[in-house]
Structure formats: C-alpha cells, structure tokens
Amino acid sequence: MNQTATSALGSLLERDPANPKLVGEVADDLFRDASYREAAELLCSVPAEIRSLPEIRVRVARSALARGRFHEAISEYEALRSEGVQASWLEHDRAHALFCIRDSDAAMKLVSEALERFGESTDLLVLKARIHMATDELEKAIACVEAALTRDPGNPTTLGVKSIAMLDSNRLADARADAVAALSRDANQHEALVTVATIFRWEGELESAERLHERILRRYPASGRTLFGSGEIALARADFARAEELLSAAARIMPRHVGTLHALAWAQLLQGNLDAAELSYRRAREAERNFGDSHGGLALVATLRGDEEQAEQHLSIALRLDPTAITAMLAKALLESARGDTGRAERMFAAILAKAGIPGGPSLKLIAQRLSSAYASRRKD
C-alpha cells in the first residue's frame, strides 16, 4: 500500500477509531513499511474494547516481536493460545520469539510440533531452516528451504534465507543467484541484502558494502550480521574504537557467534586492552570448545602479557586442534622472536601475511603488523 492509501486509511481511522478492521489494516501497512514503533503506538491508542480483541492482540504481539521485545511477545502469544486461539501462524510466531531469545531447542520443538499438527507451511519450514543455521546444521537448513520452495517457488524470504545458507556453505555463486532472485521480488528482503553486502566485503568492495550496510541498518537496526560486517570494515580501516563499538553491538545480538567474538577481540587487542580481549576469547571458547583460534587467542594475550608459560599451555591446545590457527601462529611467531629466533619468526609472519588473499585478509595483514610492533614495544619496555 502506498503512502497516499495509508494516509487515507489513517483519516478514516481518525473518524472511526473503534473499527477493528481499519485498525488492523493500518497496523499491517505500517508493518510492511517497517514502521514498527508507529504501529505499536497506534495499537496502544485504540479503545480498550478494541485493544482486547484477538485480531488486535495478535498485531500487538507482532509489533513487540518486530521491535525486539521478545518476552512481551511470548507472553501475549501464550495468553492467546491459552484462550483457545489455535493456528499455524501463532505457533510460528511463538517459536520465532523463542528463537530470538536464543532458546533454539524450545523453538525447534514448537516448530516440529506445529508441522506435525498443522502440516507443512512455508513459514514454518523457513523458520526451521533458520534454527538449523543457528546450530550450524547447514545441510538440514538447505533441505528445509528446498522443501519450502517446492511449495512456493518465488517466495523472497525463502530465497533470502537460502542465500545465507549457501553463503555459509561457501557456495558463493549459488548465494549470489538466490539473493538476486529474492531482491527481484522484494527489494528490502533482509537476508538477501546481507548476502550481497557480505559478498561485496569479501571481494574487497568495501564502499559498496558500507552503503548497503547503512541501508540495511536503517530498516533492520538489530541485524547482527550487518553490524558484524560493519565492524570488520572498521577494523580493516584501523578505526579500532568504532570497530569495537559495532562488534560489541553485534555480540549482544549474536552472543555465541564465534566470528564476531574473534573480530571484537582483535579490535580490543589493537587498542591495547588485553583484559577485554581475553574475555572475548573466553566467550568464543565457551561457544565452541574445539575451535583452535579461540585457544590461540588466549595464547596471544598471554604472550603479549609476557606470560610465556601460560602462552605455551594455550598454544599446545590450539595447535593440537588446528595447526593452521592464525592466532596460534601469531603467538608462536612472537614467542620465537622473544627467544631470539628472528629468522623463524619472520618466516612465520610471512606465512601469516600471505593469507591476506582470503576473506578478511586485509584486516589480518594489519593485525599481524600491529601486533608485531606492539610486542616489540613491550619487549623494549
């Protein structure tokens, strides 16, 4: 609905504020325009007898969900369910809210029960795919979106979610194609925009990525992947304070996303804040115990503190898990330098800098150079 039609509906609503059909239509139009705060204000302003109707309370719950007030949304959905409202969409929205508070197990249980009870629906299958993606079950996620696409081949949300699954599976050509298909149907499809921005960033087109990030965050301010991407760009440009700000915001939304926690740790390390960096690496280790770079990061922090014994302990675990872990390689190079084997240290640094061709490589090159300089300065002190 265009702005003229919205204004016309709003004028009608002013004359007839007790018309639940009009209230619902105006709220739905505001939702489509991502004007969630305005929708919430509208729904709160209607007479109490209208506000208490199930069809209005559903929209109140959805406005809470869209604004990140997940517990409020869950409470409203559960009240509706206890009063006898039964529908696939209600179970979907309840599960979505649980997923947003990172209770993936409960969300998956609700989705599975709803699929069994109500049968397959595109929305439920796509939500199931999102949950699988959050738990790194990418093949299961892809199977869910493929099933959804057999039901509704051109659904832009399904195509957008599939593009993220393909991106995370490193199938960039497929990711790009799915994102383009989604955006041809819905120019504001969130996941598709994130996919395109990520590919821009990986291909070194940072200005294009930044412009797209700004557009995404205007419409989806809680887009964790977008905040992460913006933080990575700030890191690559040596704006470490801004990088920490953005990556901290991303980590609040995605507290178990290891890549975000590692990027945050780099930003903190490069500002000399070893305590904060250590905390970020510990959070990353708790999220994924067998990721070598988290143990390597702790080795790096210990090395920069001059605690070689602690550094060796963390390094041993890191290299056992992943002999190519970047943080472990950096820590080892710095330790070799400290012990006087500068030739070996320089060869290790060269190997690290050679990885500048991988996604995030420019940041890696800068990090290696900065940490080497910082370590040299500490040794002199």
What's the main sheet like? none
What structural category characterises the helix and strand content?
A: mainly alpha
Roughly how many Å is the radius of gyration? 24 Å
Number of helices: 23
Task: Give the overall shape.
Answer: elongated
**Can you give the helix content as a percent range?**
over 70%
Number of extended strands:
0
The poorly predicted ranges are 1-5
Average residue-wise pLDDT: 87
Binned strand content:
under 5%
Distance between the termini: 66 Å
Write down the secondary-structure element order: HHHHHHHHHHHHHHHHHHHHHHH
Keywords: Repeat, TPR repeat
Protein name: Tetratricopeptide repeat protein
Pfam family, one: TPR_16
Describe the structure.
InterPro entries: TPR-like_helical_dom_sf (IPR011990), TPR_rpt (IPR019734). It comes from Arenimonas terrae. The chain is an all-alpha fold and 381 residues long. Among the domains are: 1-85, Serine Threonine Protein Phosphatase 5, Tetratricopeptide repeat (Alpha Horseshoe); 289-381, no CATH class. The chain has 23 helices and no strands. Helix 5 (54-66) packs antiparallel against helix 6 (70-82), helix 8 packs antiparallel against helix 9 and helix 15 (224-236) runs antiparallel to helix 16 (240-253).
